Amino acid sequence: QVQLVESGGGLVQTGGSLRLSCAASGSQSRINVMSWYRQAPGKQRDLVARISRSGNTNYSDSVKGRFTISRDNAKNTVYLQMNSLKPEDTAVYYCNALVIFVNYWGQGTQVTVSS
């Protein structure tokens, strides 16, 4: 079992920045890939960024060059630095951890970008 707790969401103006954090507990040593997803009202949940245990990263095209995912394995925490935020980034952001073939999810944190 893995428990994930996100923090760092909030309200920010267009062009602003936020940093999300996701702390893992439980069987965190077995986590391979950690990811951030987001879900806007009425839309499906989409991948934003992922990072492997070795540090390899992937980003959705919509956030490339603006968002940075990073991981501190010693602290069992993954971060999402979000810069140059746009109103279309408004969503609930979810942390995800993949352990073997099982996905674990955090409770989500709201990010709202005002125009």
Topology:
Layout: E1 2-7, E2 10-13, E3 18-26, E4 34-39, E5 46-51, E6 57-59, E7 67-72, E8 77-82, E9 91-99, E10 102-105, E11 109-114
Parallel strand pairs: 2-11
Antiparallel strand pairs: 1-3, 3-8, 4-5, 4-9, 5-6, 7-8, 9-10, 9-11
Measured as a percent range, the helix fraction is under 10%
The separation of the N and C termini measures 40 Å
- The general outline is globular
What's the helix-strand series? Answer: EEEEEEEEEEE
- Round the Cα radius of gyration to an integer and report it: 13 Å
Largest sheet: 7 strands, mixed
Average pLDDT works out at 94
Protein structure class: mainly beta
Total strand segments: 11
What ranges have pLDDT less than 50 throughout 5 or more consecutive residues? Answer: none
Beta-strand content estimate: over 45%
**What's the helix count?**
0
Structure description:
The protein has 115 residues and is mainly β. Helix content is 0%, strand content 57%. The strands form 2 sheets. Strands 2, 4, 5, 6, 9, 10 and 11 form a 7-stranded mixed β-sheet that branches. The chain has a 4-stranded antiparallel β-sheet with strand order 1-3-8-7, with no helix packed on it. β7 (67-72) and β8 (77-82) form a beta hairpin. It is globular and about 40 Å long.
